[in-house]
């Protein structure tokens, strides 16, 4: 019986191993500056923070530790978004890994959790959008320099996440009861074959469902929409089964254009954790 | 700064990710019953035992825990031999990860360590040769049933390893001061490129150096010799650089014939740990 922290680390590893995962590092593909080995080291480094969450530490402090550990590799940000989903889910698994409990965990976050979240940005360079003008002092890229503004405004981590929707589908999971993450877990259980294949199937189905918010942030809405439309066509044609070369070509094209649907990968990792924890998938 | 236990887990992950690694599961290849995901789960599961070793537990108890954790995946034995090298090396790293300290760690093992080593076989099915007739009661496949015989004979784990050489090159590392493991670490540092490429280079050089004892046990000496000769030709031709297709063809051939040079992979993992710990390679 694997511990929750071990399952969360394994979810990160299975996510990066899933292939083809168009636009992302996978078992077959490296990006120019971001390689498979950076994700392996990121997952290993995150373990200590995940253990803290499993032991009942606050979401913010466990997350900050997980990010500090994840960032002890040379690829910079590998799993920031995934850990922002996994840490509260590991915390929920202490009681019961259900949507209501996960929702309660994030709703109960404090101003202290928000401050720890901001400090986590000191460890790593994360792709985020500009904040609205009236929230300039809360720009996450200011890292720990924004902590006093957070404390003055008295914002909890949940409230920070509320302010990040729309535009960030990791934050959206926080305010919508981890709906897509639990959905991904069900799809992983229903899919066939080795977990690396199932991960690819579910990743593509999530990508077809909603435009990836990291792609929208780094490129634009139109690009994110185009990627989702192409994923949708591949899913409609059951291309992973009937025309795998078309999915591989899509994957190669996104890598060449530097289009990286990282938010979709984050939700895939969260789904893997839930499915492992519920023993809906086994390895 | 990554802990020793984290570096040891990462070494297991980098080892399986290295490709091409002829005959073994790698980033590109699965075997019929043994897949990449089993190795990911094996590495994650071993972490707790590796932490025990880093915290100063005895070699035997840390090893037994590492194997029990490694075995919580469905591929059966993935990293038994690698952990038999990593656990004493992690223990040595508490003081100094040098050949003399590693040698002292294994020489100081006790009868209790030997008993724990035998109990580890209860968790997993390991490919080993028949013992000599006068050592039938010490057959490791008897697992914990052999513990009373061990205790009666008063054999330490080091003495068990001495009796396993020749025929087991993991045991040989124990009695020869981890010579090939430290050599592999130096070669990893001298090689070029991403760590997954360096791992492939060093694996092939180790395979060319000595016939793999797992291949000799599962098949025969002639097969092990043939594999080493072919690896030697590829190394002499610098084939990973000049003719990668030849190495890929060798890898595919070994997988098809079910020839799995697992001992060479174990020593590669030990070399990765030493090189990570010495910061001779970074990720």
Automatic annotation (TrEMBL), chains A, B:
GO terms for molecular function: ATP binding; triphosphoribosyl-dephospho-CoA synthase activity. It comes from the Archaea. It holds the Pfam family CitG. This is Triphosphoribosyl-dephospho-CoA protein. Signal peptide: none annotated.
